[in-house]
Amino acid sequence: xxxxxxxxxxxxxxxxxxxxxxxxxxxxxxxxxxxxxxxxxxxxxxxxxxxxxxxxxxxxxxxxxxxxxxxxxxxxxxxxxxxxxxxxxxxxxxxxxxxxxxxxxxxxxxxxxxxxxxxxxxxxxxxxxxxxxxxxxxxxxxxxxxxxxxxxxxxxxxxxxxxxxxxxxxxxxxxxxxxxxxxxxxxxxxxxxxxxxxxxxxxxxxxxxxxxxxxxxxxxxxxxxxxxxxxxxxxxxxxxxxxxxxxxxxxxxxxxxxxxxxxxxxxxxxxxxxxxxxxxxxxxxxxxxxxxxxxxxxxxxxxxxxxxxxxxxxxxxxxxxxxxxxxxxxxxxxxxxxxxxxxxxxxxxxxxxxxxxxxxxxx
Length: 363
Fold this sequence. Notes:
Blueprint: H1 2-13, H2 16-35, H3 46-56, H4 70-85, E1 92-93, H5 97-114, H6 118-126, H7 131-151, E2 160-161, H8 164-183, H9 202-219, H10 223-233, H11 237-256, H12 273-290, H13 294-302, H14 306-324, H15 336-362
Antiparallel strand pairs: 1-2
């Protein structure tokens, strides 16, 4: 009987109902966070929130995007606690860590060209931002390129079991961030204007992150995985979660009068279609090579995956690089430096894809 109970529990979280319920809860939480103070169409954004954390730690000095986001802390700790209780925590790493670090930087450069991660992309769609539809098309195109190389044998090699402490390091780091947020010492930077100054109450944001972290850990929610599985295996379970996020975000925005359909006058967004497309193509391609979107990387980090922790650190460094060298877009559009950086990163991804496909054939 005990075995049957465990099997039933596992099968529920892998079911379509679970994915739709997960997406519905995330969509509702995202709308509530915006209502309580987060920037518009930004109940969650992994890239933007990691950028704010980088700024709060002084890794960049863009004064409008500096804040330690409790949502990121909650996502990691929620996945960590859940994986410990379900005995799914397993410390492992060693799968091309330096490559993953630079891929994390590249993904962040693409995300800040578009001004959002895949999760914010669907939240923007739910808010009526048609620029996010252009981003979605680019995202799918990037995933298709990544799938092409997967079919050619691309791999970043296997990972290996390591000490549990290695898996604990990043969750401990997030606890340290929470302490810095609460204590607010003088050496931590907090925005007084701009998106970084807009946030929901700390306890609400932390609880929201914990809930989403648990849900994403149990359902394996991943935007890249959803599109990849739909294309490769005709399996749409993961995709249903993101469709539900859009539907419930749309409903919430309509109820609150926050829905704004169009390409212009969208919050923290620009309407340069080419670079919205290319930015998200970079994110999609890079995420396929990394085996997960930015959200999934944080969840895997909570489960003890050291390679995903390296990727997350790469994204934080990437955010600092973007703002220190003028690569990040703004509401007025992309910068020339950012455009050059995206092209360089696309060339990097092509090189990584080819080399790691050839090495597989020669292995």
